[in-house]
């Protein structure tokens, strides 16, 4: 019988996995390791985090600035390399894949298909590396044709990896939602929080019970009479916020990398109905009319109408939230995601 494959995983941003594990034990973060990568062990894979970078951080920062934000120095593979290196995103995946004589590299791609499509130099740099990778995955199926056509990654190496979240940590609340309370969240540049604020404002003009609580570091004004903005919430606080919400709504600008999917799946796992912009890839996760409602991006009136439909029909909202929870348990947990990753090996 073959030995179990030995895989080293690499995360961008120099995440301290041991610190994450300690925080998990205190109930502060979901999953024992980021993205539940420790769960691959249950699928026959020996997995260990990459050693921490110990060089001069100033030199590493300079290399990132000159080389397209990739973590060139942090991603070097030392002696005693494993069977494969699994990279969560392209910031570590591109540098790892360029080492043609190293172990097999499997890497995810997140922001590349949105941010750099117009840069020919960047397409050549990233494409030459990704074409060497054993597998390249994306969380959105809409990204795969771009990786094939714009970056030249062979189609047989491309995989759609459904994203997963910790369904033990994100779970339905023991209390009922607060009537009229809409929850929004997210920090990336593809969030369209002004559209969400406008939609809730429209609803409040006819129903003063409607209000918004928005969790974001973005400098978005939420008028006091409309609700509140939270700038720094912990994972347990976000879980509690989802539990209070009657609807979780995420307005998005067009993007390919399925922006907002963490918030959407976390809310669904908490048994809450979701309203979200129908960007490419979102249909991989939300079944319109069953586990959530999809609305064309930028259409504030349609977004407001979808939220109103759920706020005024609590039974439908509850049934949709329960269906969403079941779907996340079946298809979008980190345990399921770990199985997909193990299968790539």
Automatic annotation (TrEMBL):
Give any Pfam family that matches: Glyco_trans_1_4
What does the UniProt keyword field contain? Transferase
Asked whether the UniProt record includes Transport among its keywords, one would answer: no
Tell whether Transferase is among the UniProt keywords.
yes
UniProt GO MF annotations = transferase activity
> Under which name does UniProt file this protein?
Glycosyl transferase
- The scientific name of the source species is Paractinoplanes deccanensis
């Amino acid at each position: 019988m073959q030995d179990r494959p030995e895989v080293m995983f690499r995360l961008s941003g120099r995440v301290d996995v041991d610190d994450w594990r300690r925080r998990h034990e205190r109930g502060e973060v979901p999953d024992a390791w980021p993205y539940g990568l420790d769960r691959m062990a249950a699928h026959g894979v020996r997995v260990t985090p990459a050693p921490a970078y110990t060089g001069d951080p100033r030199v590493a920062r300079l290399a990132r600035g000159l080389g397209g934000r990739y973590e060139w120095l942090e991603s070097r593979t030392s002696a005693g390399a494993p069977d494969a290196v699994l990279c969560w995103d392209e910031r570590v995946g591109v540098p790892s894949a360029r080492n043609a004589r190293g172990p097999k590299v499997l890497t995810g791609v997140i922001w590349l298909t949105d941010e750099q499509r117009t840069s020919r130099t960047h397409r050549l740099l990233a494409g030459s590396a990704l074409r060497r990778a054993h597998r390249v995955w994306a969380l959105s199926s809409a990204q795969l044709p771009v990786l094939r056509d714009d970056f030249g990654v062979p189609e047989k190496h491309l995989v759609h990896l459904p994203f997963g979240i910790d369904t033990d940590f994100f779970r339905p609340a023991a209390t009922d939602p607060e009537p009229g309370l809409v929850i929004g969240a997210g920090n990336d540049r593809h969030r369209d929080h002004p559209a969400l604020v406008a939609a809730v404002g429209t609803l409040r003009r006819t129903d003063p019970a409607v209000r918004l609580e928005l969790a974001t570091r973005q400098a978005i004004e939420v008028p006091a009479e409309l609700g509140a903005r939270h700038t720094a919430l912990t994972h347990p606080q976000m879980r509690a916020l989802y539990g209070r919400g009657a609807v979780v709504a995420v307005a998005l600008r067009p993007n390919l990398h399925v922006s907002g999917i963490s918030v959407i799946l976390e809310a669904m796992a908490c048994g809450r109905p979701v309203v979200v912009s129908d960007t490419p890839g979102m249909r991989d996760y939300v079944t319109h009319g069953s586990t959530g409602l999809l609305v064309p991006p930028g259409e504030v009136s349609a977004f407001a109408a979808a939220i109103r439909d759920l706020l005024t029909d609590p039974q439908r909202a509850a049934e949709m939230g329960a269906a969403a929870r079941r779907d996340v348990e079946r298809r979008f947990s980190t345990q399921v995601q770990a199985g997909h990753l193990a299968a790539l090996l």
